[in-house]
Amino acid sequence: MADAGAAHGIARGLGYLPRLAFEKRCRNYAVERDGRRLLATLVRVPGLDGVYLEVETGAEASGELAPALAVVRGLMVELGIEEGDFTTELYTDAVSARRGAGGAGRTGW
Question: What does the pLDDT look like over 70-79, one tens digit per residue?
């Protein structure tokens, strides 16, 4: 949606209230490995320590998920990222925990 204000208005109109707001600063890099297009994104979230790396690719059918994941993991290993560095934690959970229970701190859209 091109108009963020309109999107916020729709969410509020549906009865949703802001729980947590934060910035996510990204730099994207297009990469190709094993005939697959990947998007590698360096992410910085103010208030969280470090820089995060997201690597993603598409899979048109469920049978492509395992090979796609293998290519993603292969790129991460190539970049020096070890399996123990992987996380499934969401940025919203990390920011909320950093700010204290319930995401206290700057809230709103």
Answer: 999 999 999 9
Distance CA 66, CA 100 (A): 37
In a 3-state reduction of DSSP, which class is residue 40?
strand
**Hey, CA dihedral for 65, 66, 67, 71, is it positive or negative?**
positive
102 neighbors 96 (Cβ within 8 angstroms): yes
Task: Name the pTM for this structure.
Answer: 0.75
**Running DSSP on this structure, what letter comes out for residue 14?**
T
For residue 1, what pLDDT is reported? 55
What's the Cα-to-Cα distance from 103 to each of 27, 40, 91, 98, 99, rounded to whole Å?
Answer: 26, 28, 12, 8, 6
Residue 61: band (very low, low, confident or very high) from pLDDT cuts 50, 70, 90: very high
Look at the alpha carbons of 14, 17, 19, 24 in this order and tell me if their dihedral is positive or negative. positive
What is the edge-to-edge ordering of all strands in the sheet holding 36-44? 25-33, 36-44, 52-57
> Are 63 and 39 contacting, i.e. CB atoms less than 8 angstroms apart?
no
